[in-house]
Specification:
single chain, 95 residues, mainly alpha, two-stranded antiparallel sheet, 4 helices, 4% strand
Length: 95
């Protein structure tokens, strides 16, 4: 059970003022949230193999034939407002 002292401590860490009235409500709310989050520990994920990306998102794929470096550089640079020595020229934003 979350105590009022813990609520006060959390409020201090978050730098918020919690009224006397809201302390009881927050105690119940936080206990519900923690109970819900603790359900994650009961999940059975199965055997972990490979990276999380490969297991769940299937976004990793072997690359095919890569294009020749610089093949499109001239076309791209031609579209830029300004270039200098083969690079985009942009306004300086840092001193």
């Amino acid at each position: 059970m979350i105590t009022r002292k813990e609520i006060d401590h959390l409020a201090e860490l978050a730098r918020i003022d919690v009224s006397e009235k809201d302390r009881d409500s927050l105690t119940d709310d936080l206990e519900s949230i923690l109970a819900y989050v603790s359900e994650i520990n009961t999940l059975h994920i199965g055997e972990k193999t490979g990276s999380p990306i490969e297991r769940h998102l299937n976004v990793m794929r072997p690359d095919g034939e890569p294009h020749v470096p610089g093949l499109f550089s001239e076309d791209i640079l031609r579209e830029a407002p300004e270039t200098e020595e083969g690079y985009f020229k942009v306004q300086k934003i840092l001193p």
